[in-house]
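tool_call: predict_structure(chain=1)
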Amino acid sequence: MTEIIFGTDGWRGRIAEDYTFDSVRRAAQGFAAYLQQQGLAAQGVVVGHDKRFQAGDFARATAEVLAGNGIRVWLTQGATPTPAISYSVVHHGAGGGVNITASHNPPHDCGFKVRDPRGGAIPPDQLKEIERLIPASVEGVKRLRFDDAASDGTITLFDPAPAYIELLHKLVDFQPLKDAGYRVLVDCMWGNGAGWFPRLLSGGRTEIIEVHAEHNPIFPFMSRPEPIPPNIDHGLSFVKKVNADVAIINDGDADRVGFGDENGNFIDQLRVYGLLGYYFLEIRGERGPIVKTISTTKMLNKLGAIYGVPVYETGVGFKYIAPKMMEVDAMIGGEESGGYAFRGHVPERDGILAGLYLLDMMVRTGKKPSQLLDLLFDKVGPHFYKRVDSTFDKERTAEILRNVDFARPETLGGLKVEEIVTIDGHQFIMEDGGWLLIRFSGTEPIIRVYGETTREDRLDDIIADGLRLAGLRD
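tool_result:
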């Protein structure tokens, strides 16, 4: 049987190859056993899904297994944004959640995310315990037929939208956004975010124009529903055509977000996180710790120093961010992939709320996105970022690790290396405060090389040097 391994954010696999109904049922049985072990089973579980191929059927199969273990299930009525699923765990007082989604992965993948009672990611040591409890075959799986479980109330279909929308209204004043008269382009990336911004912001002068909003699990015009180039290029081409003031781009399950400015230019994820930090600290006047992964922007460290708030760095993934956010009562937490979480909400990424906050920043300042970047750079200086993803032969894994482990470069891109950090992968800190990071993806057979610098003229050379360090380029 397929070995099920939980990576950065749950288990993901290729549909019909290793991600099969039998594998999903085994994963669900492991999670059921974990909940029973932790004394959480009596609180029930929320189960939701995205719009990937047969995701709804995989969610029903998961619900059947949980019900077969005597665990009550609240099953979403349809495809639902991940943040709404996560908040539903808290709203129902559930012991945990399961979300059938592969987030931003290619269309042939699906996934199995698990959540704790606070709607956040489960820490790595507990994910290992879930893995240990997964039975080796379906013979160890308990099931209760869906119709029988629905008839006796063990499985309940529900709409997560009302409670989630009520929460959003507590965090954002919607009326100024509705009255602003903006033209907002929303690229739904064929995912769960479709229909949400029109639903939230209708009834005023602001106009929402959606693209890629239909249900299409092959994700045309993009290799995957991840809100970074080149996947966002087709969506951004509409900005000028519709005379939009801003573009909001949600990934397949709407927990991540990307943005485009009024000229159709992409605003990278590190700059977005810098903008969000500036928004809370300067414009809203809030204070509190910031949590960031090692792979995201040092602009936050600079903002933390300016405004006197602590900044904590973690490994990559919300399985590290969420526990740290709860530990320090963070104001905001986020990662390089475009996922941001906020105080007053669950410790989980919310691409819809992040989009609302950026619109609120525009309203409060009266500035377009490109002008907001000028505000940020006036405070911390310009920063430039790039990431290169490379597939590799798994037989080379040990070789690549050796290459990076033993690397002690004096310079990268001509800038002196002053420190090496190994929280997650290998990060080389340079004299300008910039950095190069080399690490393996936790969800795919990919090695990532990232870089951020204040020297735009050195960025490509820094990345090239990183690829050479890993042995991926001569």
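agent: Residues 11-162 form a domain with the Alpha-D-Glucose-1,6-Bisphosphate; Chain A, domain 3 fold (CATH 3.40.120.10). Proceeding to next step.
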